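Quick note —
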Amino acid sequence: MSTKFIMAESLQIAQLGNPILRQPARLIENISAQHIQHLINNLIVTVTAANGVGIAAPQVSEQHCVFIVASRPNLRYPHAPLMEPTAMVNPRLVDHSEEIIKDWEGCLSIPGIRGLVPRYRVI
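Predicted structure written out below.
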C-alpha cells in the first residue's frame, strides 16, 4: 500500500466582499478524510504565513466547518499567548459565562482594519 505525501501550502485568503465569506460552512462528516487533513495542514501554514492567530476554512474558499486557533506573539498580536495550532472541527458553543468583554480584533480577510468585538469571557 502506498501512502501519498502531499506538502502543505499557504493558501490565498479571501478578502472582504468575496461572497464565499457569507455562505454557511458545511459540517465535516469524516475528519479522517485525506482532503480534510490536508485542508487543516494548509490552514496552519496559511495562518502562520499571514501572522494571524486564527483562520477558518471559508477564508481560504473552502466551505467546511473547521477553523484553526494558533495564538502566538507575532507582528499583528505582539502580546498574544503562546499555544500550539489547534483545529476545531464542527465547533458548537455549549456553555458560556454571562460576562462579556470587548477587545480590539482584526481579521485576515479584512486587512488593516480592527474592530471592538464583544466576546463571552469564558466559553
